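fyi for ur records
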Amino acid sequence: MSKKSALHIAKGVEDAPFINPKWKGAKRLKQDTESLAEAVLQGDITALSVAITIAESTSPEDEFRCRALMNRLHPESGGAFRIGISGVPGVGKSTFLEAYCSFLLNHDPDARIAVLAVDPSSEWSKGSILGDKTRMESIGKSNRVFIRPSASGGRLGGVARSTFEAVTLCEAAGFNFIFVETVGVGQSETVVSKLTDCFLFLAMPGTGDELQGIKKGIMEMADVIALNKCDGDRVQQAEQSAIELQGALQLMTRTQDHWQPPVLQISALHATGMEDMWSALDRFKRHGQLNGWMDKRRSAQQEYWFKSTIGDLLFERMSAKENWGKERDDLLAQIAKGKVSPFEASRLLMDKILA
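which gave:
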């Protein structure tokens, strides 16, 4: 155990600034959290599932648990190769993951794979609509694979609120390959690039989906592009689509990392092109490590989530203010009457609350 880890245990949860040690549940929370954290570090899948459930919860007590777990386990994370996967619905993200992870399990005996699949959620209950775990049944049987579907909760960006915590927890549990499968709803999917090392964009040939890749938002973020379903009568169309995409990529220069995204032709259904995919992802990883910009990317991601979380916490603290409801309702009434714009009203409310 590292000196840094020992320090976290020695401090204890009840010494953390966000928990009052006099709170009657503090001692139980400390014991529960420490035992759960140790189980996660031992690679206990049940403990990992419980920890992610705590991270997804919105109850105050589970928020305390989550923060304590993250304080304990964050220093033990960071060792995995994180790959984000995006593409429009129906492109075959889950089928690709099943095919590629099967290849990876056979190709690398040391591979331990975590798949974090973010499903679309119900607008009313916020629960998951799909069930990616049932669609990746073959790899789900392996004791080297952990699959965790999570509801997006209506959050834009293709990832759930707790996906960052889930990645950290999976790394602490010893998984060295982490795939984050996004909802798949369009250009906002690029948020997944804020928590992964490599952004893989999937498209289909001959259907117009490849045009998504020509849009600047996706183009700037994609590290590897793969045309899926390149089989049957789509083979010729796939070749033409690949040429068009490669030509579009040449118009953009990624001077920050000196990397030209490859365009691959694969068929997840027939598990073809998986070795090419492995080669491209491995080449990208080695290139990033050699040039040092993969570490810079992770540092930039930490800064992004720090700033993003500040906004969320600020809104929560504002909501807890005693006069928040009345001031908000008064301003909403003025907005409805056309007396003030929404932007000016938000500034007025911020001035009052933060004064």
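DSSP finds 14 helices and seven strands in the chain. thats all i got for now
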